Amino acid sequence: MKTMEPRDLGSEVPSNLPGGVLVDQMYVIAPQDLNTLLFSPDSNFPRTWAEEQGNTELQIGPWRFENGCESLKRDVTYIKAANKLIKATKGFEEQTYLKADGKVFAILASVSTPEVMYGGSFKTELLFCITPGPELSSGEQSSHLVISWRMNFLQSTMMKGMIENGARSALRETYEQFATFLSQTITPVDSNDMGLNKEQILASLQPEPQSDWKLAVHYFANFTVVSSFFMGIYVLVHIWLATSTTIQGLEFVGLDLPDSIGEFIVCGVLVLQGERFLQLISRFMQARKQKGSDHGVKAQGDGWLLTVALIKGDNLAAVDSSGFCDPYVVFTCNGKSRTSSIKFQQCDPMWNEIFEYDAMDEPPSMLDVEVYDFDGPFNEATSLGHAEINFVKSDISDLADVWIPLQGKLAQACQSKLHLRIFLNNTKGSNVVKEYLTKMEKEVGKKINLRSPQTNSAFQKLFGLPPEEFLINDFTCHLKRKMLLQGRLFLSARIIGFHANLFGHKTNFFFLWEDIEDIQVLPPSLSSMGSPVIVMTLRQGRGMDARHGAKTQDEEGQSWHCGRQDP
After folding, report:
1. Fewer Cβ atoms within 10 A, N terminus or C terminus of the chain?
2. CA torsion 436→437→438→444, rounded to 10°?
3. What value does the mean pLDDT take over residues 438-447?
4. Where in the numbering of this chain does the C2 domain appear (predicted)?
């Protein structure tokens, strides 16, 4: 580990594997201690977990360096316990450290079972990511453990779909048991402790105090201002020393025109220099009026409270002639915007500013982030990058301390990113769902039943949704393609989703309500088997994760045709 730490400092954390997330939990333990518990040769946890599963003959090899100390690996073998589908079989597992910098640990486990049917054609890969969590109100450290998976097919096989579905089902069941077993050894982070920690984190953020005089000196200490100052002094001294000349050409009293090409060029330079100097003063005065922090201003009302802490930026694009930029950030959620202060002449600005949104009746779906370079009150601001934070696809605990990479040509060229801390709290507790359904009943004029916790949990697992998402209603329908695909349509406060399972082939997607540009209801027809058709058109660039379910795709957007079959 000591050998790997200097090499891995600053390297990127591997992204989750595409098969999905099996475990996503925070624990009251330091990251290095959690890594020791799960992967140290001296730890007893792997053996007790193998016994819990019924696995036997566990052999754990020593960690070894390969490729000139480039990779740290070890081999694990065991006899996997028999189940309803397969008999007891031998498993081979190769574990490799992808990152180990002392705070963040990423381990890839490649599992093969060659004795099972088609076992030589695939490997199951598991990625264990251990990252630091926020400091708890008790002062203890926390760790965030995420386990994701994928199937790596070594050769093509007609049984690919069946193998993936079987592995997905078995892994989910296994790692639900793993999370429960691990929670008996170390304590999971309590959500109440995280809520208390929010106030401590925000209280620790203090904007850098800087007087207007210091900012002015920093902003105006450049070649344009200095050269303009000396040129102005030079011109004033010249006027004082010079004597009046005789009126000639087209001049008259009060109007002294240049008498040569040289004088004309000098006058032009002085005018352009003066204009540039006045623009700098105008930009500075306008920027100082823009105060960005909501420090001390609390959100009003009860409901969903969104708090965004803007910590700092990194590697923002230098677009000014000085080799720096004057960045500021605009956050937009549910049509309401919050704007940060402007940081002069900085590509790695430090803000430490807090923005709060008044209570919302329903949880927000998206937070838009735009970074601009300030170019004065009369010029269009230059975009330095943008990002979208999707609350439906993100775990709220992950956003408590996160680096957001910016998109856009300038941002991607410089690998720009922002350090944010985002908190989303519900002050109404369980009543928020009942109040929302009551509001919906008044709008649609129909009774809406509150779904059970088990139904909501199944709905969240089906689409990989956060725990605050709740099901409103679901219907039997078919997705209109070349052949009608029978399935169910699910409606929640923030998403609309479709799920179908045809002979083990699953179609599963969702998109946000706010992504929808237009909804049309077409009358029943022969092609829709006598059912009315709902046509949903999404705004351009939205719902890209669900594009495989669209009937048509063009430059204007994507369209989904669903036939409603429930009465």
Report:
1. C
2. 110
3. 78
4. 286-404
Under the banding of pLDDT at 50, 70 and 90, the label for residue 300 is low
Torsions phi, psi of 488, nearest 5? -130, 145
* Confidence (pLDDT) at 196: 47
Outline which parts of the chain fall under CATH 2.30.29.30.
431-564
Distances (CA, A) of 462 to 17, 126, 505, 507, 512: 18, 20, 14, 11, 16
Task: Name, in order, each residue with C-beta under 8 angstroms of 302's C-beta and a sequence gap of 6 or more.
Answer: 359, 427, 428
Q: Extract long-range pairs of 37-42: CB within 8 Å, 24+ residues apart.
A: 37/185, 37/186, 38/107, 38/128, 38/130, 39/95, 39/105, 39/107, 39/128
Query: How far, CA to CA in Å, does 67 sit from each of 72, 73, 105, 153?
Result: 9, 11, 20, 25
**Domain 431-564 architecture:** Roll (2.30)
Ranges of beta strands (E only) in 122-260 are 122-132, 143-153
Q: Is the pLDDT of residue 27 over 80?
A: yes
Alpha helices, DSSP H, located in 18-127: 31-39, 45-53
Residue 10 region by backbone torsions, left for phi larger than 0, else alpha for psi between -120 and 50, else beta: left
Single-letter code of the amino acid located at 312: K
Residue with tokens 């669903």: 562
- The per-residue pLDDT for range 92-129, each reduced to its tens digit, is 999 999 888 888 899 999 999 888 877 788 899 999 99
Instruction: Return the CATH number of the domain spanning residue range 304-426.
Output: 2.60.40.150
Neighbours of 179 (CB within 10 A): 16
Q: CA 267, CA 258: separation in Å to the nearest integer?
A: 8
Name the β-bridge partners of 76.
60, 93
Is residue 384 within 8 Å of residue 319, measured between CB atoms? yes
Rounded to the nearest 10 degrees, the angle between the axes of helix 160-183 and helix 45-53 is 120
Question: Picking from 60-74, 95-109, 185-199, which range would have the lowest pLDDT averaged per residue?
Answer: 185-199
Residues of the chain with CATH 2.60.40.150: 304-426
Range(s) of the chain covered by CATH 3.30.530: 4-189
Residues of the chain with pLDDT > 90, as a percent, come to: 16
Q: Which of 450, 426, 427 is nearest to 440 (CA)?
A: 450
Give the C-alpha separation, 81 to 50, whole Å.
Answer: 10
Q: What 8-state DSSP symbol labels residue 523?
A: P
Q: Give the helix/strand (H/E) hosting 418.
A: strand 417-426
Residues 6+ apart with CB under 8 A from 139: none
Residue 348 has pLDDT above 80, yes or no: yes
pTM over 0.70: no
Q: Is 84 helix (H, G, I), strand (E, B) or coil?
A: coil
Per the CB < 8 A criterion, the answer to whether 407 and 386 are in contact is yes
